[in-house]
Specification:
Oligomer: single chain
Largest sheet: none
Number of helices: 15
CATH architecture of the largest domain: Up-down Bundle
Structural class: mainly alpha
Number of domains: 2
CATH topology of the largest domain: Methane Monooxygenase Hydroxylase, Chain G, domain 1
Shape: elongated
CATH class of the largest domain: Mainly Alpha
Strand content: under 5%
Distance between the termini: 56 Å
Radius of gyration: 27 Å
CATH superfamily of the largest domain: Phosphate transport system protein phou homolog 2, domain 2
């Protein structure tokens, strides 16, 4: 019986953070309904809807999107009143309100979800029977819902933006190290093209995680700029480390692609595969050591980890040059690409690469 209960609870225990988020969102929406209905006549429904639209994984995102939503909705309500008075409630008033609210949301630099929420909330405010009094009531309900959403967002996630950035850096780093280790083991066992294809697929999946880690690092930096609870220097350091991990992941995917292409031709001698396996295993251990050697706040860099990996990359390059006469030029280029990628990984691990600090980021 105990085992059955444990098995039934396992899916929920494995998703503790998700459960926390939906529970907080449910309590927040119910609270917004209660407060909205107590303060305003029939104001609870609008407050609950806006609260559910506003609440986010962090207080930083909720503050940013909540205030943007309030401002955007206030402007949208004014636009709605004007268009309804001019054209009555119908096709033109709704279309113009949606169009102008979308432009306003874009101007406020809200993200994709919040950009949708602003016109949606404006439509709620301008619902059937709109007048100055009902618009004001719905606008106040919007303010109540957004405010409660912001407050409850503090409890939505157990860690800070910096803490979540560290978690993502660690998570993608461990997956990269595991992939490098698997590729090293495959080289020792004379891997097949099918195995190489699976490695390349895993490398592509890692690349797809880059936008998430980049967004989280940007949130940590933005949060530290206004919150007294976070240190800006620490957030900027985490942003640098997130970029370094992004570069590492790109090189890991590049290695997987080189091995896949090499498997198509399939004439790598055993001793060269062995040398490459040693270098890849060293890269895997270096990434793992980097993650494990830093403290919770990612403040220290052990440069000896990267130095050891550089030696391995150079050793591999020398071994390949010595065996230049036994493999084709195309295979030599692929193998040298692996050595080059490992060297770039070492530069990312000790954060010495000019590509990390000397390149200005730019909003696209």
């Amino acid at each position: 019986m105990k085992r059955l209960i444990k098995k039934a609870l396992k899916p929920f225990l494995d998703r503790k953070i998700w459960l926390r988020q939906i529970t907080v969102a449910a309590i927040a929406s119910a609270t917004a309904w209660l407060v909205g209905d107590s303060v305003l006549h029939h104001g609870g429904v609008v407050a609950a809807i806006v609260c559910s639209l506003t609440i986010r994984i962090s207080i930083h995102k909720s503050v940013r999107e909540g205030f943007g939503q309030i401002i955007g909705t206030a402007i949208g309500a004014v636009i709605a009143l004007i268009t309804v008075n001019l054209f009555n409630f119908g096709f033109i008033s709704i279309a113009s309100t949606m169009l102008l609210c979308a432009v306003i949301a874009r101007g406020l630099r809200l993200d994709e979800v919040a950009s949708i929420n602003v016109p949606v909330t404006a439509l709620i405010v301008m619902g059937p029977g709109i007048s100055e009094s009902t618009a004001t009531s719905r606008l106040l309900s919007t303010l109540i819902g957004a405010g409660i959403g912001i407050v409850f967002s503090y409890f939505s996630h157990p860690s800070t933006p910096a803490g979540r950035t560290i978690e993502q850096i660690s998570g993608i780093g461990r997956k990269s190290a595991r992939l490098l280790s698997d590729m090293a083991n495959g080289l020792r066992a004379d891997y097949t093209q099918q195995e190489a294809g699976k490695w390349l697929t895993r490398g592509r999946v890692l690349i797809e995680l880059i936008p998430s880690i980049r967004s989280q690092a940007a949130e940590a930096t933005s949060y530290a700029k206004w919150s007294p609870l976070a240190e800006l220097d620490e957030a900027q350091l985490l942003a640098l480390r997130a970029t370094a991990m992004e570069h590492t992941v790109v090189q890991v995917r590049g290695i997987a692609r080189a091995l896949f292409d090499a498997a198509i031709e399939g004439d790598l001698p055993e001793d060269i595969r062995h040398e490459m396996a040693i270098a890849l295993k060293a890269a895997s251990q270096a990434i793992t050591s980097k993650i494990e050697s830093v403290n919770e706040k990612f403040q220290f860099v052990d440069v000896t980890i990267a130095d050891h990996l550089r030696i391995q990359a150079k050793t591999l390059s020398n071994a390949l040059l010595e065996r230049n006469d036994v493999i084709s030029r195309e295979q030599m280029l692929r193998c040298m690409t692996v050595a080059s990628n490992i060297k770039i990984i070492s530069d990312s691990l000790d954060e010495s690469s000019p590509a990390l600090g000397d390149i200005e980021s730019e909003d696209i």
